[in-house]
Amino acid sequence: MFYNQVLLNINKKIKLTQKELEKILRAVLTTSNFWKIAELCELTLPFLSSVLRSLQEQEIIKIKDDKILLSSKGKKLIQELCITKIQKFTCPYCKTEGVNFNLLNIKKKFLELQKNRPQPLRKYDQGYITPETTLKRVSFAISKGDVTNKEIFIIGDDDLVSIALGLTRLPKRIVVVDIDKRLIDFISKISKKESLNLEVLTLDVREPLPKEFLHKFDTFFTDPSETLEALKMFIGRGLVSLKGVGSAGYFGLTHIEASLDKWHKFEKIILSEFNCVITDIISNFNEYVNWPYATQTRAFKISPVKSIPKNNWYKSSLIRIELLKRVSWNLKVRKKNIYSDKEASTT
Amino acid sequence: MFYNQVLLNINKKIKLTQKELEKILRAVLTTSNFWKIAELCELTLPFLSSVLRSLQEQEIIKIKDDKILLSSKGKKLIQELCITKIQKFTCPYCKTEGVNFNLLNIKKKFLELQKNRPQPLRKYDQGYITPETTLKRVSFAISKGDVTNKEIFIIGDDDLVSIALGLTRLPKRIVVVDIDKRLIDFISKISKKESLNLEVLTLDVREPLPKEFLHKFDTFFTDPSETLEALKMFIGRGLVSLKGVGSAGYFGLTHIEASLDKWHKFEKIILSEFNCVITDIISNFNEYVNWPYATQTRAFKISPVKSIPKNNWYKSSLIRIELLKRVSWNLKVRKKNIYSDKEASTT
To answer: For position A156, what pLDDT does the model report?
Structure first.
C-alpha cells in the first residue's frame, strides 16, 4: 500500500482524503497542463497547488517546461490505485457535461438486451426510464468520476442501471437489490449471459440493510417513491451503504409528485441529517416510459380527461449528492404504507 | 383586476399563488393535452387537477374531446396577465433543457455589441463569462419561465446579462446595479442605442439595498465572489429584491474557489436563513474568459507553473433557487475585505 505512505506524507501538512488524491491523480493522468488540471479536478486552487507541491517533493510528479508530469514513481501509484483518465461525455452541441451517452459504446447492446424486461407493477410503484435515459445516467456518473473502478450499490433497478453499468466494464463491483423477484431474475440472467458479474439480491428496503452492505460502496443509485418517508428511506439506505467522505449518490425527484415545499424539506434532510452536499440537479433529465397500469393510477382517476397519455410525460430531475461525513441511519421502517401521500399520483 | 377574482375563487378551496396560476395558464396556452400540461407546469398532479377543475367551474377553461381549451373568458385572463407560451430551448442533441441558446434570435447582435465591453478589473474581482455563456444563461432562464414579462434585477453585470435580456424584448423591466461606473456607462450607452430601456445605477452592495428596490422583482441574477460572506451578501441582496414566493434567483458557484464544505454551508444558508429551495445546479455551465490581470492573481502566484493559461479554464455551476417565503435581510456589511478567504485565488 504505497499510496498510504503518500497520503500520510501529504497529511503532515494538508488534510487530504483518498478521494481527493484520486481526483488530482486522475486529472494529472489526463493532462499535463496545470490550468486544465485545476479545471478537471474540481478542488480549490490553493488546495490543489499545495498538494501538487507535496507530490513534487515526494517525486510522484515532476514539473518540466511548465508541464506537470508523472514520474515513474507516480506511474506506479496510478497503477496501484487503478486510476484512469477523466472522461466527460460533453454534448458537442450545447457543451453540457456528462449527457452525451452516444459516446458509450454499449448503446446498441443495451437497447437490445433491455427489450424483454419485466413490465412495471403497480404494487411496487414501478415505472422505468427510457433506455436512453439509463444510458445518459450512466454517462453522467462516469463523467463525475463515480463509476470507473468504483464499488456501486443499486437500490431498486427497474431502470436496469446495473446492466448498463456492467456492460461498460468500468466498475469494480456492482450490487443490485430489489423487492421484485422478476427483476432480480431478469438482471441475473443477463448478467450470466453477458458475464457482467453483477451481484443480485431480493430485498425489501423497509428492512435495515444487511451488515455486509454497510459502508462498502463508493456510489449508489436509486429512484424512490416520492413521499418524504420513502425518500428518506431509499436515500438513507443508499447513504449508509457508502464508505464515507467523497462517496456519491444519485436519485430522481419530480415536480409531479413532489411540491417545492417537499423538495425544500427533503433538501434540508440531505444537508443536515444526512451530512451531504448537493452537487447537481438537472431538470427533466429522466424521462419515464408510460405505465401499462396507467388507467389504474390516481393520476388517471383525478385527471380531468380520460384519455391515456400517448407520449411520455412523466419526467424527473437527476440529483447528485456527495457525502461529507459517514451516515449511520439504518432503522427498520415499520409503517406499511409509506409509498403514498396527498401529492402522489402514480400509485 | 379580473385575475384577482379568479385567484380568490380558487383559493376558497385550494391555496394557490399567482405564480402557480401563471404556470398553469402558460401550460394551457402552450398545449391542450392534459399530460403535456402536467409535464410543463411543474406542479403536483393532484394540485393541478384541482385547479383545472376550479378553472373549469369558473368557465376559464373548457374540456372538449379530452382537450383542455381556453374559453373566451380564459383568453381575456391570459391577456390581462400577459401570459405567453412556454419555450424550452431544448438541446436537439442531448435533450437538456434550456441550453440551446442558438434558438435565441439575438445571438449575432449580442456578440457584436459586447465587443467593446470594459475589461475586468482586479479591484472589483471581475471576470466575465463568454458571450455564449451569457446567451445560454438567458435561454435557460427563459425556459424556466423567469424572464418573459418579468421584472428582473441584476447585481453586478460584467457578464452583460442585462443587454442580452434587453435584446430579447421579453422582460417587463430590467434594473442593473454595479459598483463599476465604466460598466454602468457602457450598459447605459448600449441601452440607449438599442432602445433596451434598461435602468442602471452605480451601487456598492455592501450598502443596504435602496428602498425602491425592495420586494419589487420576479428574478435576480448575480455572479458573486465566493467567500461565504460575499455569497451571503450578494444572494441576500438578490433575495430581498424579490417579490415573494415563486420568485427566483440565479448565480454561479465554482469548485475552484469554494470547497464542498463551503458549498454545504452555503446551501444550508439558502435553505434555512433564506427560505429558498434549490431547483437546479448545472456543473460547468459558466465558462469565464481568462483575466487580463491573470499574472497578478493569487492563482498565478501559488500555481506551480508560471505560464499564463491559454484556454479558458475557470468554470462554474449555474444554480437556480426559488423563494418559498419573503426574505427581509438587508443589513449594511461593515467589514471591508469580504472578497478573499483561504480558498480564494482570482483576486
So the answer is: 96
Whose cell is 433491455? That residue is A114
pLDDT per residue over B95-139, tens digit each? 999 999 998 999 999 999 999 999 998 888 889 999 999 999 999
Q: Are residues B169 and B230 in the same domain?
A: yes
Q: How many domains does chain B have?
A: 2
Pair A26, A152 in one domain: no
Domain that holds residue A70: 2-80
Per the domain annotation, does B342 fall within a domain?
A: no
Is a pLDDT exceeding 90 seen at residue A337?
A: no
Interface of A with B in 123-182 (CB under 8 A): 136
Residues with Cβ within 8 Å of residue B244, at least 6 apart in sequence: B215, B323, B325, B326
Q: Using CA atoms, how far apart are residues B40 and B283, in angstroms rounded to an integer?
A: 23
| Option in A44, A100, A307 nearest B256 (CB) | A44
- As a whole number of angstroms, the distance between CA B153 and CA B165 comes to 11
Q: Is residue A90 part of a domain?
A: no
Mean pLDDT for chain B? 95
Q: Do A35 and B309 touch (CB under 8 A)?
A: yes
Q: What is the pLDDT of residues B44-72, one digit of tens each?
A: 999 999 999 999 999 999 999 999 999 99
Residues from chain B that touch A53, judged by Cβ atoms under 8 A, are 304
A303·B42 Cβ contact <8 A: no
For residues A40 and A152, state if they share a domain.
no
Cβ separation B91–A92 shorter than 8 A = no
Per the listing, cell 506537470 goes with A68
Same domain, A73 and A139: no
Nearest residue to A274 (alpha-carbon basis) of B271, B202, B165, B100: B271
* Strand B248-253 relative to strand B67-70, pairing: unpaired
CATH of the domain at A171: 3.40.50.150
Contact B281 A280 (CB under 8 A): yes
Residue partners of A81: CB distance under 8 A and separation at least 6: A3, A21, A22, A25
Residue B298 burial (CB < 10 Å; 0-12/13-18/19+)? middle
- ipTM of the modeled complex: 0.96
Picking from B65, B99, B225, B255 by the largest number of A CB atoms within 10 A of its own CB, the best residue to mutate is B255
**Nearest-by-Cβ selection for B281 from A278, A302, A345:** A278
**CB of A303 within 8 Å of any CB in chain B?**
yes
Residue A199 lies in a domain: yes
- Domain co-membership, B160 together with B304: yes
Contact A345 B45 (CB under 8 A): yes
Q: Say if the Cβ atoms of B260 and A324 lie within 8 Å.
A: yes
For position B299, what pLDDT does the model report?
86
Q: Does B47 touch chain A (CB under 8 A)?
A: yes
Nearest Cβ partner for B44 among A95, A259, A267: A259
Residue A42 DSSP class: -
- Confidence check: pLDDT of B3 > 90: no
> How close is the nearest chain A Cα to the Cα of B177, in Å?
29
